[in-house]
Amino acid sequence: MRPFEFHRPTSLDEALALLARPDARALAGGTTLVDLMKLGVEAPGLVVDIGRLPLAGITLESGSLRIGALARNSAVARDSVVLSQFPALSEALLSGASGQIRNAASMGGNLMQRTRCAYFRSHDWPCNKRVPGSGCPAREGANAHHAVLGTSDHCIAVSPSDVAVALLALDASVAIAGPRGVRHVAIADFYRLPGDTPVIETVVQPGELIVHLDVPATALATRSGYLKLRGRASYEFASASVAAAVKLEGGVVAEVAVAIGGLGTVPWRDRGAERLLIGEALGDAAVDRFCDALLAPARPTPDNRYKLDLARGAVHHMLARSRPC
Ligand SMILES: Cc1cc2nc3c(=O)[nH]c(=O)nc-3n(C[C@H](O)[C@H](O)[C@H](O)COP(=O)(O)OP(=O)(O)OC[C@H]3O[C@@H](n4cnc5c(N)ncnc54)[C@H](O)[C@@H]3O)c2cc1C
Ligand code: SF4
Fold first, then answer.
1. Ligand 1 mean position to 242 CA, how many Å?
2. Residue 13 reports pLDDT greater than 70
3. Atom of ligand 1 nearest to the CA of 236
């Protein structure tokens, strides 16, 4: 690991001033950053420990849940308001990592975690995300766990965060502080497709900091849930996951939100596909039409094609939960 400077600011202004240095990185729980520093994938000259900033609150006010960027994944997952009014958030968080990691991991860090692509994490291989222009060995290599949606010729790395998928289904927004104040970005616009610059993963600019998330408290959110399919029952990233919420009126769909994880280079949602379900009874044929539209842009490889069947099955399962018995 390369030597680095270490600072522990106590105010947001102080933190932002430190993070203005181009070689600075924010440190929250450290469960991703420290790993990547040990691997030499990240080599900041300045580490800014933001742990002393007052950004860990979880409050419900004015019809919206506000979650501080430093709220721990475990604290959010067990919060009584989250459990009763935003169950998909709790289920997504509890499906991730391990109890110990969730106790350390922050919400901001979770959204900003880097891909688990093995080529990205090893200096033995080129990687466009680690060294722009060096190539993407995953395209022709071991790609069973890589993305099928939103890929480019330059990168097919899958987006790793579970809770980002739930936040997408719940129409959350991200508050980002920078030198010119705080801006609010819909989570749907937060992640960037890899295109020809896979190194740029989110709209967060150097020198900016996520300060909190806002999640609208809606009747739909209280009906939400999260299902994660993976190679083993815990301590594993998603092969396919679904965050879904449905409101039925008179036996047909009045409102619906479905986001999927494990398949996209970014958390994936298609509002056009959702509109196909409005006014429909939730029969298998309607759900299949929805899945056909949702997965139509997929570009699978022979080794990750299985994810399409997993996602379809998970969507059927989650939408079937909302049918009247
Ligand atoms: C073994 C293991 C298994 C895991 N399994 C899962 C899983 O199944 N599902 C899942 O979703 N996640 C999983 N994770 C990832 C885990 O959720 C993240 O490591 C964690 O959420 C990151 O939070 P942190 O506070 O530790 O971030 P840090 O490691 O401190 O930071 C991560 C990145 O975010 C940046 N950052 C941190 N806070 C902010 C902020 N407020 N604003 C801007 N940038 C910020 C840092 O600079 C850094 O680049 C796993 C991790 C491990 C180690
Ligand atoms: S998929 Fe992306 S992260 Fe993985 S090797 Fe290719 S460029 Fe790098």
1. 20
2. yes
3. 8
